[in-house]
Amino acid sequence: NLTISGLVEAIARIPAAPESDSMLKHFVSDPHNRYTPFPLTPIQHAYWIGREPWVQYGGIACHVVFEWDKDLTEFNPQQFAAAWNALIKRHDMLRMTVNHAGEQVVHAEVDYFPIVERDLRSLSEEAQHVELEQIRQQMRHQVRAADVWPLFDVQLSRLSEHKVRLHLNLDLLQFDVQSFKIMMDDLATAYQGKDLEPLSITFRDYVMHEQTLRHSAEWQNSWHYWQQTIPTLPKAPQLPLNPDYQHHAPEFITLEGRLSDSEWQTLKSVWQQWGVTPSAGLLTLFAHTLANWTASPDFTLNMTFFNRQPFHEAVQDLIGDFTSVLLMDFQHDSSTDLKQRILQTQSKLWQRLGHSQVNGVEVIRELAKHWKSSGQLSEQEAALPLTPVVFTSMLGMSMDGMDIEQAMTHLLGDPVYVLSQTPQVWLDHQIMEIEGNLAFNWYCMAGVLAPDLLENLFNQYLSLLQQCAADPQFFERSLTQPEPLHPLLPPDHVIAESTLDWHNMSLPEISPQIVQEVTQAWAQLEHRALRGIWTTLRNHQLFTSPEQAYRTPQIIQQLKVTDKHHKLIQLWLDQLCREGVLTEKDGEYRFQDDFPKAPRLPLPQQAWCQRLDTYLEDCLKQHPALLNGRHSALELLFSDPAITDSLYRCNPSLQILNLSAARAIYALGQQQAQGLNILEVGAGTAATTREVLSLASSTIRHYQFTDVSRLFLHEARELLSEYPQVSYGLFDINQPIDEALKMDGGYQVILAVNVLHDAIDLAKCLQGLRALLADDGYLILIEATDQHSPMQLATVGFIEGINAFNDFRQSTGSGMLTQPAWLALLAEQGLEPQLSYPNSEVSALRQHLIVTQKRPQHSPQTLGQSESYQQQIEQIKSIWQTFLHGEINHDTDFFLAGGDSLMATKMIVALQHAGIKQASLQSLFEHPKFQDFCCQFESAPSTATTTVETDIIEPNTTLESQDNTTQQKNGVCVRHYPLTPLQNAYWLGENALFSLGNGVAHFYAELEIKHLDRLRLTQAWNRLVQLHDQLRGEIDAGQYHIHRQVPEYQPQFLDLSSWDEPQKTRWIDEARTQIAAHGVATHQWPLFDISILQVDGETSLVHLVLDLVVADGKSLNTLFQQWFALYDDLSIEL
């Protein structure tokens, strides 16, 4: 019973200890023997042995290396050196060494420790970098003699007149985590010139007191417990090892991950309801991830905990290593779900902590003896560490009200570099909480485990955390039952239709910092590209004065443009007209005598945008040679791998979208027992391929990598050589499909990243790819959705494929489509959109990830084409008659016969319910006459069969008769109702089909709030979301769908308080303009948006956008009243 009352009862049942047994009473300070050798603690002894070069996977110091960059206006090296020596004087453990007998000795006096300062001011920036890297590597690999003082190292590097780097190397023989905080506190005091008072006890006193407790009944009971438990413990996780590992001095890498505040709060809340600690929850999920890769599902993990016992009030002021370990074993029973496993872990954890008087290092020694004596340890296993996988939790560690991260940074700020390494530890998973987020780092010994295993483990663990946070019910799902197979398809080619909840899939966060970086970078690049195009024209004596007028053939002749680039020049002229530089009348172009002003914010210093800027300049310089065909745009693009990396891999947009695509594929792969068959078209430099394989290779059976270039295929073979499931082939999306690429049963996934815009005929291309998909397979694409880009026109626009389009895109003058245009086109081609990320029509990333699923075509009774088509016409005619209440003939015009947009929406839904999936609002608006409307479906027969009975929604159906309808959508139970007439008007008015539409109907409010509590405001809003169905809705096929459960909503936040006033004003004005122009998308929850701008230390602006299909004016008034009431008091009932 882990309730408060249960714990009180349990404590009351414990008999009071006799006074003579009190640990506090027996604690003795022994200043007389202060400098007498005393034993190493078990963990210290393990660290000390691990330093020896003969220890396999050892030969390193267990230490932490920190680096800080400090400005000399706020950091005084002389004061710091004095403070450091005052620290040495106060704390015995900073004067400690280990003698050859394995005992620690505190020296009464040591020399003054001078902090060495290297002067690097005369070196170039590059030379400084080399020197700093050498210092870092020296400290990383330094194993200072344990019997020679000092064991720590502190150095300074002078970088300029005002800047230094502080290097700190701390040996964990002397420190634990809390000791770092004590060190920082005392340093801060001494740095201010204050005296450090002597301590009343020493670390030696603490260790010697612990030694006396070995004779106590509690320690003996724990020892007996572990002797009984040891025979039941399985071995460490048997993970795949790297057979080529060279046993030299180990190198370490760090993998860093985070869960957002909302995700972490969700997990903690769930676990709190179960009565388990976050540490137990995370430990279980970590073990579950490992179990997917281990030879045996049963194994033992080494859990670090910080066991500073309050034997004396001054213990909290000591520097020393109070670390202990606890062995936690896991038996992964296939019949238990994650919730049961977590509860079992918590129960076992309480039990093991109750016997933690015996240090886990001693238990490990006994465990080794048992395995050896019983013959359970092979010769190979005996050469390996017994417990190389460690779990370290620093959750809940509060030091004078500060968490561990604050404690480490309040004096010197955030370090620029941190390294932690432990001998014989292959993987140390460390967790802590930072500003409400869960931060976890994996400190890993590089090269020991099989290639890419660490990255795969880490990505799977992160994905598991995010999945559990997004859908807490996942904890209680069976881990053994496979997803149901589609009854009409062979098992090898099945992906379940509705088990994936795309709506709640965990995808990388698009932070305000990324938005700002991308927006600022592309504003500069686009302006510079436009300026460059204009300069090219002016350099050829074009448009040198406003009175000059030119026609396109004259411009082409003046520029000496080769035939293949004639279309590009027309696109240049169109873009200059859009930007207001030129005007066009009767085919003549004139200069407006004006040019757009340059963006005020500079190009960011990030490497990707700086490299693209250089690439742009190179292209602009080569414009004359590119225009007349003397120079190749491809040569410029591929002259430096950093260019394509910056375009397709390293910039924040593609990093987010490539990872999102990888997570989508991994999620699909989790449902495919035999592994996925994937085709990637236009794979190019393998930027996305690498991300996908890194995360999802374990779920992929066959990966067909294709491109039009043999060079790319050759390079990919080298880049992807570690993935045996990858094969390579030529494929041009504009050419007939090679039979060799077709797969029996089709591909479960086709991936196309920034290639489909190269199609000459996009609809035909999509039909070709659709034919290669398995039934219910997925086409996943990433495409630029910013339709008009001067940067593209000035650079890759010279590559013929970019502007080769010869289809409906001719009317827009761009090969690119907007996100709504993509969604409409894909749906028309039988590829149903499942996910769009970001879900807004206009993306700050300038690109979107779109996941589509091939519409199922199950035809148990296939009819002849003519018979089927005739039946379909009769079916359509019947439905038209139902809505129009009159006779229908070939020339009947739906709208002239009395139909309206509301009726049209309902009729299209009825047609789709009847199996005529190709029917769409667009098709009806473009072909309102009955005969023309039906002709669209002649070559694409209905999916209905002779036995289908049509369930038509009557045009006068009332809201009351429909509002309780429930269905499964993407695996989530939803309710839905038909849109009201006014809702329909708003919804249809937002559609680009209407000449005066493509707008937004939304409510926008800006609230100025002093001393805003963001967390409370967010919690209040989420209460409203749970209270009001309308706030959990989205529109699908003319129906308003209400989700029973949605994730906690997190407003976007941007801190402008450090910006100057012009920057603030400009950003706020742009935010208002964007909100006014775009609103929110209605096809995917949420149909509202909240952003918070911190203007200064007191003032915040809260922007609320709410689509008018959600609420009317009176409802908005109610909504605001309730929101403010909850903000004032979250406990009130509404």
TrEMBL record:
Its cofactor is pantetheine 4'-phosphate. CDD domains: AdoMet_MTases, Cyc_NRPS. GO terms for molecular function: ligase activity; methyltransferase activity; phosphopantetheine binding. Residues 867-941 form the Carrier domain. Keywords: Ligase, Methyltransferase, Phosphopantetheine, Phosphoprotein, Transferase. GO terms for cellular component: cytoplasm. One of its GO terms (biological process) is toxin biosynthetic process. This is Methyltransferase.
